[in-house]
Amino acid sequence: MDPVKLAKLQALASTNRIGGKGTVRRKVVRKTKPSAAQDDKKLQGALKKLNVQPIAGVEEVNMFREDGNVLHFTAPKVHAAVSANTFAIYGTGHVKELTELVPGILNQLGPDSLASLRKLAESYQSIQQGQQRPAEGGAAEEDDDDDDVPDLVENFDEEKKADLEELN
What we know:
Blueprint lengths: L2 H11 L22 H14 L3 E3 L4 E5 L4 E6 L2 E5 L4 E5 L2 E5 H8 L5 H22 L4 H12 L7 H12 L1
Antiparallel strand pairs: 1-4, 2-3, 3-6, 4-5
């Protein structure tokens, strides 16, 4: 067979055709990735089912977590159904430490968050004191831990035996 003719056939085969002359061209399947607009439409549909209304004028949202961090949203979209006690907050959220946001959020802190703020302040003070006086560090702190545990005074096994003898 002629090498030029063979090269032409190979070039045709490498295009969209699977078979030879006269066969159906192969269809290219394109998978589209869901865009942010599609996700937003799904979210809007779910929010409609909950009968929530948009709340305008919310500049930031802070959610205080149990580990002492804060989930911080700037310019979030907020929807609420107050009668059902349902709130939907969506947008770009960032996990930040409580100390990063302290000056601006002092009026938002509840009792749990104030307790975690105190713990953070105490830990920072202890770290700073430990850096200033490293020689006092280790042994004194271990002795303080032992003082918190009360000593065992009574023998519970003897009391259990006495109770069993009274029952018999």
